[in-house]
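Structure first, sequence second, as always.
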């Protein structure tokens, strides 16, 4: 300690000597130039270089300052003893930060750097167009001169990327919709947003675990696949088609995807889009790391014919939810008149050149009737993964029992479990139906399981009866068809129809005579 104070005193002494020397040797007008010169000499012998990143750059907020703050917050959260805490707008997470004049070492690519957070009082307010904070905040980065060229650019890029990740993780996800029918908001934005708080996750999603695992892996590969997509020359996007009966979890799956990847959702209401160019504009205004969803695509518009003009044909692609009735006049008339969207417009939206403005986007289409979709929409590369959301299976049922009743497989009676396994495949009940039953009786868990078993049995019985009727009807139809065939093959054998025809012909001849 003594040595420390001793060396500090000698440094101060040297400084004082230099200052008085400066005053004696240089007249006041040369003093500033001399100081600059000393500074240069000092810099030549100093092995470090320093970079100041101030919070406000002129009058604008410096994005790099916010990024550094967020980036460092991920390092200080564990190690620091005195930290500043902040919670940003639209965020439910708290971030840690360095307090005033605190320092922190960081390592990047094996190089050590030092960060210092410097906070000083702002001098008396100078004139400014906007109010300035009382404090001047900034970070100073200290790097060894020899390492500067080695890491500076890549280190700052890395910090920006990391900060974006942290921000996305902390911020609440947003759900966007274009339901205003093409009108723009005050900022010229065609999308409206609300915080997205859907609680569905892959843990709560009841489906075959192997299939679920496959989808989760595919999503992770996609999200981490920037270099792969770059290397293979593909646009960084992926398409999923979710199809299956109502209530099997297609929308829940979309929410689970968004929560899993931390992406925003753009719920595109096609019936509110008037033409292909509006569709393109909507696409251009979506951000990367997002899921663009078109639900019930078979009902949205008439998408069954790619050829311009022919989509107007009334006989093509009419589903039970008639597109013309759903989307009003003008649907499916091609680009002419600029008052409609076509299948080719939608295909360009998902797969054409426009689809890659921005990156890291997932397209999800859902439908209850996959057979009604145009094959062009289904070809691989466009919809990369087709996911069939089926009626509740036994593995899916186990997930529902665990989530809704807290009952694991081991908690259930073996006999009941076996019966459930036998009957679930025959009952063809959706996870939505089953979860309703479980919610109803969730206070009495044993009763819930028994009632579920009864409902499944009843449903299976009804199914087998209606199946029998259909089979019998089909058999009758086949028999009838065969009879007709026989009649056509051997008209000479004669039937009532042939006899009456002959008689009619004879009568006709008589009349003519
Ligand atoms: N696979 C599932 N796992 C967990 N819950 C499910 C599942 N499927 C349906 N549900 C429950 O049923 C409700 C309806 O499901 P969802 O809206 O996801 O079905 P959908 O397939 O999108 O139906 P639709 O085709 O009518 O749009 C959900 O709120 C959820 O609680
Ligand atoms: Mg749905």
């Amino acid at each position: 300690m003594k040595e420390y104070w001793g060396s500090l005193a000698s440094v101060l002494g040297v400084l004082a000597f230099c200052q008085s020397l400066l005053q004696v040797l240089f007249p006041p007008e040369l003093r500033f130039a001399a100081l600059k010169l000393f500074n240069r000499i000092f810099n030549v012998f100093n092995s470090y270089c320093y970079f100041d990143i101030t919070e406000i750059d002129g009058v604008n907020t410096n994005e790099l300052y916010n990024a550094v703050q967020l980036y460092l917050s991920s390092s200080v959260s564990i190690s620091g003893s005195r930290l500043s805490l902040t919670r940003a707008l639209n965020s439910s997470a708290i971030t840690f930060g360095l307090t005033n004049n605190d320092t922190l070492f960081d390592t990047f690519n094996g190089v050590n750097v030092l960060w210092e957070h410097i906070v000083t009082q702002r001098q008396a307010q100078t004139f400014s167009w906007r109010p300035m904070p009382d404090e001047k905040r900034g970070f100073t980065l200290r790097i060894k001169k020899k390492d500067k060229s080695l890491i500076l650019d890549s280190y700052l890029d890395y910090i920006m990327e990391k900060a974006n990740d942290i921000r996305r993780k902390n911020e609440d996800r947003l759900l966007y919709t274009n339901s205003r029918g093409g009108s723009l908001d005050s900022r010229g934005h065609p999308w409206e947003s609300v915080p997205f708080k859907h609680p569905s996750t892959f843990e709560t999603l009841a489906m075959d675990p192997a299939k679920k695992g496959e989808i989760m892996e595919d999503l992770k590969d996609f999200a981490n696949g920037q270099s792969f997509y770059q290397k293979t020359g593909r646009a960084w996007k992926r398409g999923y088609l979710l199809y299956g009966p109502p209530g099997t979890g297609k929308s829940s799956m979309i929410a689970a995807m968004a929560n899993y990847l931390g992406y925003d959702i753009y719920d595109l209401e096609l019936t509110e889009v008037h033409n292909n160019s509006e569709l393109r504009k909507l696409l251009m205004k979506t951000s990367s790391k997002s899921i663009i969803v078109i639900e019930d695509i078979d009902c949205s518009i008439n998408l069954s014919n790619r050829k311009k003009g022919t989509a107007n044909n009334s006989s093509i692609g009419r589903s039970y939810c008639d597109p013309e009735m759903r989307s009003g006049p003008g649907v499916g008339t091609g680009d002419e008149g600029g008052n409609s969207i076509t299948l080719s417009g939608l295909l360009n939206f998902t797969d054409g050149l426009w689809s890659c403005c921005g990156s890291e986007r997932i397209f999800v289409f859902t439908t209850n009737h996959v057979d009604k979709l145009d094959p062009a929409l289904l070809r691989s590369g466009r919809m990369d993964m087709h996911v069939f959301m089926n009626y509740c299976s036994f593995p899916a049922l186990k997930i529902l029992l665990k989530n809704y009743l807290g009952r694991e497989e081991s908690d259930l009676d073996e006999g009941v479990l076996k019966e459930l396994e036998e009957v679930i495949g025959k009952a063809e009940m959706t996870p939505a139906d089953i979860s309703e039953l479980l919610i109803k009786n969730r206070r009495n868990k044993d009763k819930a399981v028994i009632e579920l078993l009864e409902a499944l049995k009843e449903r299976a019985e009804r199914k087998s009866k209606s199946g029998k009727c259909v089979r019998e009807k089909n058999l009758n139809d086949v028999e009838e068809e065969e009879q007709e065939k026989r009649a056509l093959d051997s008209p000479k054998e004669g039937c009532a129809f042939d006899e009456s025809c002959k008689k009619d012909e004879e009568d006709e001849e008589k009349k003519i005579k």
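Margin note: The CA atoms of residues 412 and 449 lie 9 Å apart.
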